[in-house]
Design brief:
The chain is mainly alpha-helical and 143 residues long. The chain has helices at 23-77, 81-95, 130-141; strands at 2-3, 6-7. It has one domain (2-141). It contains 3 helices and 2 strands; from the N terminus they run ββααα. The radius of gyration is 28 Å and the shape is rod-shaped.
């Protein structure tokens, strides 16, 4: 049995009698194998669509948090979107974890240089909680 030219299985027929399977039985077996291949193809496509749907849902669920983290980093580090994303990506790679799976308040540590920061006359931000606290821990290491 094959799907798109790739073999995924075989249909084996056995009989205790010699020459028990004639042309009619072979034709029925071939027809059954074609139908089984078609059913397998539909099942594989459905499984792939289900997996893609789950991946897209996960991406949508984590996007808001990542966008918030980027905004906080951009404000704290006075950096561009791309620079903030590089900081998050670096932290994710060095922690060997997907940013979207980090619980709020967990520590983000990433080696590397921080973007250039302009002198500021504004007072420091008050202590943060939740995602902002997580980003504060990350940005302290980039200062």
């Amino acid at each position: 049995m094959s799907i798109n030219g790739k073999t995924y299985g075989a249909l084996n027929l056995y009989s205790r009698a010699t020459d028990a399977l004639g042309d009619a039985e072979r034709q029925r077996a071939e027809f059954f194998a074609v139908q089984a291949s078609a059913a397998l193809s539909v099942a594989r496509r459905q499984a792939e669509h289900t997996q893609l749907t789950e991946q897209l849902r996960d991406a949508l669920a984590t996007r808001a948090g990542i966008d918030q983290a980027l905004g906080i980093l951009m404000a704290q580090q006075d950096c561009t979107h791309d620079q903030a994303f590089a900081i998050l990506r670096s932290a994710s790679q060095h922690q060997n974890r997907n940013f979207g799976t980090w619980p709020p308040g967990s520590s983000l540590r990433s080696p590397g240089r921080r973007p250039a920061r302009r002198a500021s006359t504004t007072p420091p931000d008050p202590p943060a909680t939740g995602p902002a606290r997580t980003l504060n821990a990350l940005t302290r290491e980039h200062r």
